[in-house]
Amino acid sequence: MLDLLLDPSFAASIPRFVTPILLAALGGALCERAGVFNIALEGFLLMGAFAAVLGSYFSGSPYVGALAAMLAGMALGLVFAEFNLRRGGDSIVVSIAINLLAAGLTTFLLRAIFDVTGAFSDAGIVGFGPVRLPLIEDIPFVGQILSGQSALFYVALLCVPLMHVFLARHRLGLRIRAAGENAEALRAGGVEPRRVQLVALLACGALCGLGGAQLSIANVNLFVENMSAGRGWIAVVAVLLTRGRPWPLFFIALLFGAVDSLSFRVQGLGLAQQFTDMMPYLATLIVLVALSWWRARRARGETR
Amino acid sequence: MRVELNGITVRFGPVTAVDDVSLGIEPGEIHALVGENGAGKSTLMNLLFGLVRPAAGTVVLDGVERRWSSPQDAIASGLGMVHQHFMLQDTMTVLENIVLCAEPVGRFGFVDFAAARRRLDAIAAEHGIAVDLTREVGRLSVSQRQTVEILKVLYREAELVILDEPTAVLTPQEKDRLFDTLRNFRAAGKSIVIITHKLDEVMEIADRVSVMRAGRLVRSSLLDETSRQEIARGIVGGELPEARTRKAQAAGDVVLSVRDATIARRGRPVGPVSFDLRAGEIVGIAGVSGNGQSELVRGLTGLDPLLSGGISLCGQSVETLDVAARRAHGMSYIPEDRQRMGLALGASVSENANAGRDDRSAFTTGPFLRHGAMMRFARAIIEDYRIRVAGPSAAASTMSGGNKQKLVVGRELTRNTAVVVAENPTWGVDIGAIDFIHGELMRMRDSGHAILLISTELDEVIALSDRILVMYDGAISGEVSGGEANREDVGALMMSRGKAA
Amino acid sequence: MMETGALNLRNVLPWLWTVLWIASIVLALLLFVGAPVGEALSGFWQGAFGGRRHAYLMATLSRSALIVGMAISVMLSFRAGLFNIGGEGQLVAGGLAAGLIAILLPGPPLVVLAAAIAGAMLAGAAWALLAGVLQLYMGVPLLVGSLLLNYPIRYIGSYLVAHPFRDVPSGMVQSYLVPQATWFAYFPGTRLDIGILFTLTATAFALVYSYGTLHGYHTRLNGLSADFARTVGLPVRRLTLQTLAISGAIAGLVGAIAVFGIHHRYIDGMLVQPLYAWTGIIAVLLVGMVPWAVPISGFFFAAVQTGAAGMERAAGVPKEIALVIQAVIILFVASRVSGALSSRAGRGDGDA
């Protein structure tokens, strides 16, 4: 087992799994901090994955694909805002509807545009290639993890400190936190919280879109029905666990991504695929239980 | 700044909250706006501040008619408001709270906290008020939070300051300090509006007083030209209900005994608390809100577990029992928060009235409900407690605050238990309902029940209690006997871990 | 009189707009795929309610049996304020248990059938209870816990029919057939199995339970305000677990209906891919959790799905349009029918 963890090729595969979860979770974190209970990350991711393939296929550029993915995510963010913020629909109901909408639209468009069911792969889909970082790639072990990943991985990595500083020191960051903590106070201060929440939703859509792009045009060069496969939900859990704080979020995403990667890896060791497929969800549950147990213990300690 | 409100009318759906009110506010004057709950005072000020929009009427500032599209406009024109429920972000620092929505920004929209600090240092020097800017607001005391709110207003260079019930959460001594600050503002030429329902304060600090009732302006005049009685009559629209007289009565056996109870809360636990409650007496627990009263109540009723200590109810120790078992042993509970804890607003009046009933067989047959019996029960409460509602099948949310509270009181008192725990039982209800609820509590006492009255309203505690315990900082700081004479002693105990008076 | 008339118009107008919005979105999708609109619409109607001797209507009813069943299961949880979105897992647990018991247990067919149905209900209840225990004793919010539990049971089922109980000669990932004597009979002259009778029974139970029992009354109070329920001394934890068990048992029953009425074995993905559980959830949300309207809403969504299949046959519109239509309906209706859910769901109950 230890051999496996220290195997550089295993370690190098972790970022592929971390990136979509991290990007989606960062988006979800913005919503969480802004007081929008967005559990439609699964749908956002899926839509992004499809739009990325669409953009890349028709333009021949992964960057256009990523842009299309961001736009698609933002479009869903706009839908969320329209029905939750403006029309006052319940956020859980809206989330469930958006998850279904994404599942429906992607399969529908898959047939309507490409005339295939299940999956679409084509040489015309151009994916992100590995980005080699000079100097860093020469560092043993670490270099193999940090270098040679997709551009989206570096974007995700950069987003963590950026979001931390943004929330702590930026005007909009301050207002996002206020919208989530005490929206009424923000309104009394003269800033309409729903506007701030709309911005958070759009940014969340863009980030999730990028996460989807990582799934479809960086990890592989194809789109499969329902290819987000629960990662959006894992991102939701990561957000809830960390209450949307960027750094803890990063480490949780790293953990979930590593388990995801590990489950892929141990398939080669003769364990039935069904059991390895289960691992990310069981790991998520275990982390949930462990963290709440730890928090309860700490809360007891505090009062003593 | 001179402000004129002309013919203001505000409607919420079919309800007219403010009806054709005209009012002037002069610079360098402290203007008291009084009236009972629901009279429209807060709505009128929210309108002036841009939080609600008028159906008719105009706002004129220094001779120029203004229309706000949001509070931001009002703030930009020099208005500032300290709301009754503080508009603060608990997890943010004092500094972040003060600059929020008025942030000095540098490059890329990042906040220039250093510039904000410099301005606040200047303000602190000028007005002599200061708070540690790096503290998290959630860890401040109530009066410190109010100071933060006032700093927010000053930071925005407000010329007109509106304070909505600013003294409700303060001890008498903290109130004095606040009034000093307000006089300081008056001297600096600012206009101040203070919304209140406490006549003593009006007489103490106001230059001009306006009285509202049922959405209308009853009178507006200089304080010198009116009298306390005249204002009081204006508030209630007639004579005040006469002061309640307490029937002399010897207290009976101990029915509730609390020994060294401690209950968890954020930071340090509450307690240890010990006291006895006897049949036929009302024991008041006074104190500024947030000094451990709500934790104590949750521990007594079984909503939260005790960390240590014991509770005996009618001679039986109940500290390990759950809510239902304690209720069955003879405890009723009127919670402070009728919207969430006292009632299920989405359910009907009947469903609310029958909840938590002990005599289950009276309204069920096996597992099935007998709707007729439930309706009859609800109708009886509606009549006995003079609740104004369409009927037992109306949704609880359709009732006014006072009637909601009467339903909660009715449901709990009808259970006829030895002990009644009443937590701020008249919070935010109209004078009629307050008087009625006080009467019912007193009737229960006279008929030999024991009432534990937890209230942050000092007047209420003094008017009703046979004995008064004062809570400060999670412990009982002293006990005094009831009655008006001891007001000062109670006030002193409310802000120190003093020795019993 | 005048006044009520005006009021009615004011109430109806927003609904008219809603219908118009939904219709124009569907129309836009049809135009996007270049389908002949007239044929598509008649195909939809035929697919949902027509067919030779109403064969398609029977298909709609057969699908309703599952969707309404899931909706009833979800409704009981939601009304109690329990955001149990793990119906899928409970359904799979039930279907799996039903199939395996029927294959493994020897005995007279009726006994086997009864045992299998009981086993399915127990399995569903157990899976739901697991989510409840995770919430109450381990601090995992029900919303998240119940959802995450969908995945392991799905893979367990997949493993069991891919390896130990696989019907290898069939070449598919599926179990052996259950004994033919245990199959649900068809209504005479139709291809509609009697599974729908079980759903109707469950529906009747749920209606009586919701409107007429003490337990239903108490769980509803808990659903409207958990703080209130605690304050008046209702046994909140016990109510939670009992409600989840009932919910899960009904979902398990639906799994058994699918096995004995439709597939006659457990096929990998047969309960997951058609999104029965999610359709059940949105059927409940569509009518704001009002019990008597839930079966109607469930039938409506079943008709949308079979109608979409008809549209595909008649006009070549991909039948996946059904999902889009459902989502759009929920989006537009969700903002009108207020389901007071999120105020307390998701964040856990802070009990931990």
TrEMBL record, chain B:
InterPro entries: AAA+_ATPase, ABC_carbohydrate_import_ATPase, ABC_transporter-like_ATP-bd, ABC_transporter-like_CS, P-loop_NTPase. It is a peripheral membrane protein. Keywords: ATP-binding, Cell membrane, Membrane, Nucleotide-binding, Repeat, Sugar transport, Translocase, Transport. One of its GO terms (cellular component) is plasma membrane. GO terms for molecular function: ATP binding; ATP hydrolysis activity. Residues 3-239, 249-498 form the ABC transporter domain. SUPFAM superfamilies: P-loop containing nucleoside triphosphate hydrolases. It is found in: Cell membrane. Coiled coil: none annotated. Belongs to the ABC transporter superfamily. This is Putative ABC transporter ATP-binding protein. It comes from Nitratireductor indicus C115.
UniProtKB/TrEMBL annotation, chain C:
GO terms for molecular function: transmembrane transporter activity. The chain crosses the membrane at residues 12-35, 55-78, 194-212, 244-263, 275-301, 321-339. The keyword Membrane applies. It is a multi-pass membrane protein. Keywords: Cell membrane, Membrane, Transmembrane, Transmembrane helix. InterPro entries: ABC_transp_permease (IPR001851). GO terms for cellular component: plasma membrane. It is found in: Cell membrane. This is ABC transporter permease.
